[in-house]
Design brief:
The protein has 361 residues and is of the alpha+beta class. The chain is built from eleven helices and nine strands. The chain has a seven-stranded antiparallel sheet.
């Protein structure tokens, strides 16, 4: 249990010793080595540590109280991190060490409070790692913590566990039922609410939807329009129908970032500046509506139009920039733009329906 390990004393030449005196740091190494060599602090003479420091010309005083505090902190932290019984003999060892180092009651109380806070957080993390024998309720009782007073430490331990998992979720863009159950179990172990910031919740929802589309059977949904014989609808979401339109563009020579090229032409007509104008084709959202995917067709409904594409007239699809480009047998593409949350899911669902993989084997 004693956390002290033997250290090498600093060696100083005879001339350096004459000039600078004995190395004061050796006093604290000496005390460390005395503690490392014993099995129990109570086995040492009450003045053993004081004499060890005196060998190097050091006396306990206010100037070196921080050095003594650091030595005492090591034992107190080790005890609180490993002991589960308030009557454990190691608490008596701490008391003897505090007296041997001549620490004030106020300093002892300060060190114990800081050590308890660190040890409590560490043991909460150990609960999640399966290395702690006590439950969080037992830890609260042992450390004298109430629910609200210890919530921040427990929440911090859970957040560390969660974000180590979230890195994997982000990497693979998936969040499974097993992952959710694991986080729920971790939150229960630490008695913290399973809640996240809005951006994290949105990301988890997106990752879950992708996992569902990839791993679960596709189930029919209810719709308000008539279906054909043996037709089932598997998805519906807001969408924009895209079309290619030619839009007039002209050079903006008043833009401070504009770089002139050899081919740039300027002309003046009266008091006006005549610039180069041209028509450029752009893919734009022509109208907003609702997009449905069935096992027989794609259907887009807006306030003005109802557009459908039978699946047997679609050879495949590509996905980029939240748009799905459905390749038609007649040539060209039918293009629809979806939200960040729905676009990739819809693309994956289309490929499954197109391939007839409605059920997961």
């Amino acid at each position: 249990m004693l956390p002290y390990k033997q250290k090498e004393l600093e060696e100083r030449g005879l001339i350096d010793t004459w000039l600078s005196g004995k190395p004061e740091q050796n006093a604290w190494i000496e005390i460390n080595n005395i503690l490392a060599a014993t099995g129990k602090v109570t086995d040492l003479a009450s003045d053993a540590l004081k004499k060890g420091a005196a060998k190097w010309g050091v006396r306990f005083n206010e100037r070196n109280v921080d050095k003594r505090r650091e030595i005492y902190s090591q034992l107190v932290e080790a005890v609180y991190e490993n002991v589960s019984d308030k009557q454990n003999i190691w608490f008596a060892q701490c008391e003897v060490l505090a007296n041997s180092l001549e620490l004030s009651p106020q300093m002892v109380q300060y060190v114990q409070r800081a050590a308890k806070n660190r040890a409590y957080a560490e043991r909460c993390r150990a609960i999640l790692a399966g290395k702690e024998s006590m439950t969080v309720t037992q830890l609260n009782e042992f450390f004298g913590c109430d629910y609200e007073g210890s919530l921040a430490a427990r929440r911090e331990a859970f957040d560390g566990y969660f974000y180590s998992k979230f890195e994997k979720f982000e990497e693979i863009q998936r969040y499974s039922q097993e992952d959710e159950a694991d986080l729920a179990a971790a939150a229960k172990k630490l008695d913290v609410p399973l809640e996240f910031k809005e951006n994290i919740s949105s990301a988890l929802t997106r990752f879950r939807n992708l996992w569902n589309v990839e791993s679960q059977d596709l189930e029919p949904i209810q719709v308000q329009f008539p279906l054909n014989v043996d037709e089932e609808c598997y998805a519906g979401t807001n969408s924009g129908r895209c079309v290619n339109k030619k839009i007039q563009e002209e050079d903006n020579f008043f833009d401070h970032n504009h770089k002139f090229k050899v081919g740039d032409t300027l002309a003046f007509k009266g008091a006006e500046l005549d610039t180069n104008k041209r028509l450029v084709e752009h893919l734009i959202v022509d109208e907003m509506g609702y997009f449905f995917l069935t096992n027989q067709r794609l259907l887009f409904l807006s306030e003005k139009n109802a557009v459908q594409h039978p699946l047997n007239e679609i050879t495949g699809a590509d996905y980029r920039d939240n748009c799905i480009f459905f390749h038609l047998t007649s040539g060209g593409d039918a293009v629809y733009k979806f939200s960040d949350e729905a676009s990739k899911c819809m693309f994956m669902m289309f490929n499954r329906v197109k391939a007839g993989r409605i059920k997961i084997n």
